[in-house]
Request: fold
Amino acid sequence: MKADLHTHTCYSKDSLTTPQDLVAACMRRGVAVLAVTDHNAIDGALAAREAADQWRAAGRPAPRVIVGEEVMTTAGEVIGLFLSELIPRGLSPQETVEHIRRQGGLVVVPHPFDRLRRGPMTREALAEIAPLLDAIEVCNARTSFAADNEQARAFAVAHGLLHTAGSDAHSPGEVGQCFVDVPDFADVADFRRALAQGEVGGRLSLPLVHLHSSYAKLRKRLDRAGRWPHPR
Reply:
């Protein structure tokens, strides 16, 4: 099954994609497992899971939705997968890992060596918490330089960590750009085994996709200020 393990909805400040549109994009692009990992939020993931359940109840195929969160810690971002509760931002990496573990979730560090981002975990913190991690994101479609993804893969291999991949989609057209092909799984423990057997694939998105995020942030800022023009 094609699994995209890093995506965003309008519950992230830099996306306008509704949970329903994200689920629909999965069906168009052959994604069978979808992890919704909004920035410091899980409401979008819960809404996407509900939308997928409604599709299946109506007899339509829909992706299996994993509730996740991309959490900003004091030293960079950590993704928790298979969550049931929101994890607060601003904790230390170790505290964030503890919150994920209490929920029975998996701990992933996304885009750890992306040289152009503001959110990657610092190298010092990454080295310190490496023994606490489940996986490293070794293919992120929004990473501008393929060498940065390769460095992430090398780190994962050196530390015996599982490999994940995701489009980091902030718009529907990006879904499935990077993915892991995994066998079927029943629960979190089984998903770990599936990842160990998975094969990472995909390609980088065009740099222009970052304009979607810039536009989303601008539009939301103007909406809050009451300055975005709405049709009468």
About this structure: The mean pLDDT is 95.
